[in-house]
Amino acid sequence: MIKQKIVYCFDKKYIFPFSISLSSLLKYNKNCDVYLLFYKKDQKEVENLIQKYFLIYKNSIQLISISDNIFENWKESFYVDKWKFTFFISKAAYLKFLIPNYIKSEKIIYLDSDTLVQNNISPLFDLSLDQNSIGGVIDIPGGDTSKIKRGSSDIYINTGVLLMDLQKIKKNNFLQDINNIYKNFEQDIVWADQCIFNKYFENDKKILDSKWNKIINTRIVTSNEFKDITQNNNILHFAGGIKPWQKWCNPVVFEYYQALVKEFRIVDFIPDEIKTVDQALELTSCLDLNKNYAESSKIKSGIIDSLLKNINVKESLPK
Questions:
Q1: In the chain, what is the straight-line distance between the N-terminal and C-terminal CA atoms, in Å?
Q2: What whole-number percentage of the chain has pLDDT above 90?
Q3: Does domain 4-215 have CATH number 3.30.2350.10?
Q4: Distance CA 135, CA 113 (A)
Q5: pLDDT tens digits, residue range 151-167?
Q6: What are the CA-CA distances from residue 177 to residues 68, 97, 171, 183, 289 (Å)?
Q7: Which pTM was predicted?
């Protein structure tokens, strides 16, 4: 039986989300080799994580450290004109471009660290790309906001889950061409690596079923909707700005994720605490969405009390 080849690219910031994603992969997929691409500065943390939590899989996990300065001058923030906000990424996202250079396999599945595998993914690995170089799930919002021009027939895909024919990609000057796209379109890039991938593989993509990369907006998903999503999709992707390991995330999603942290016994994974009023209000919005009005009201009352105390303190200061 041919082993599935799975690749992750991440940095220290995402090391624990990666550990949950990898644990979910290994829960349902025993016949796979996993390749980890990361920067040299994070090597010690990655080695310690594998030693502590994945030692029994060590022979199936290959660590690949990359020079810290390879994408040193590439951007980390991008402005989305249509939505009028600035989008930030880690430069670990650019490590995807090195996959053809470092992975010898003919074919791989790439997974972002904010994904959860819900099932056996061998049907995805075995899927034919129909002479295309890459396969991915349609990303309509990404396509609507991308500014790099592509042919009218080309469909914009999300790069959080990719099926890649490395044998075909390696026949070209992939990394050099990627560099050229970055230089030529630097001012037009909106979604970092994703816009570059979509331009390079213009009209060379197979569109995959969304069950292989179900993108979840944690802000608007209800309890019933999330239950349906988890039961009917093979890979979940928390691609939005609010992640399931943040305490201001939708409790429906946060509690599901925390149950996995407990199941996989990743004891060092501590959720991000609420530190701002905006984060607290984000939580109340999700509580209201799921009709948990009492808890929402309690948090809002706490915010008001805190603000009033600050006002009273300021008013009592000598003039």
A1: 79
A2: 87
A3: no
A4: 18
A5: 999 999 999 999 999 99
A6: 21, 10, 12, 10, 46
A7: 0.93
